[in-house]
Amino acid sequence: MRGVCKHYADGDVDALVNVNLSIASAEFVAIVGPSGGGKSTLLNMLGALDEPTRGEVWFEGKPLSQQPSLDRFRAHKIGFIFQSYHLLPNLTAQENVQLTMFDTHPNVSQRKAEAIRLLERVGLGDRVNHRADKLSIGQRQRVAIARAIAGNPPLILADEPTGALDTERGNEVMDLLDEIRIEESSTLVVVTHDERVAERADRVVYICDGMLRTV
Ligand code: ADP
Ligand code: MG
């Protein structure tokens, strides 16, 4: 990110103020800071879910503003994991994982097989056909991780992935993310309030009032 600013006209908020941040390939970065400090806004910018008001986000040497399709960019390059999972409650675990695979796995049977493989990978091989709303909270977060890693994106972004989990479940989810990023050499950026999550990272970035400080 070079000189990234984000101004929300709604509320007249400067959520990011001249943010410069370089993240190396395969690095694990934790983003910490007070509520309202700009963590989610920063993560959304890294994942091309929102556009800066000023400045530029570069990915693999190319500015996002020059990507021909941000949809395709996200489908191939970014895996997103949210605190509240964003699963569709009436769909099965497998159907939820398949949701984001249309671009990376155009063939239906390939998509199904890959969704099952990913669910097995996150330890949910026996829950493939369960509806999302019948799964425990920890299991839902695992489905969300399986969905995020479909297509093996080089960058995984997680916004408070352990925020709704107890300590044990939270540790399991972080162990899983750690394993996956090492196996796949993925870059991982995690927004967190949890010191134990931040301690696992290669680097901790502190953001407050939209401004960065490395700690
Ligand atoms: P954090 O994730 O650290 O809690 P956010 O990035 O969500 O912080 O928010 C940063 C600031 O921007 C806050 O003041 C918040 O109220 C504001 N904000 C976030 N999203 C929007 C939005 N879509 N419209 C207007 N203001 C927003
Ligand atoms: Mg947030």
From TrEMBL:
GO MF term list: ATP binding; ATP hydrolysis activity; transmembrane transporter activity
Domain of life per record: Bacteria
UniProt keyword ATP-binding, yes or no: yes
GO cellular component, one term: plasma membrane
Cited CDD domains: ABC_MJ0796_LolCDE_FtsE
Gene3D superfamilies to which the protein is assigned, alphabetical: P-loop containing nucleotide triphosphate hydrolases
Single GO biological process annotation from the record: transmembrane transport
SMART domains for this protein: AAA
A Pfam family assignment: ABC_tran
InterPro entries, per the entry: AAA+_ATPase (IPR003593), ABC_transporter-like_ATP-bd (IPR003439), ABC_transpr_LolD-like (IPR015854), MacB-like_ATP-bd (IPR017911), P-loop_NTPase (IPR027417)
Domain ABC transporter: 1-215
Record key words, sorted: ATP-binding, Nucleotide-binding, Transport
Protein name in the entry: ABC transporter (Glutamine transport ATP-binding protein)
Source lineage: Bacteria, Pseudomonadati, Planctomycetota, Planctomycetia, Pirellulales
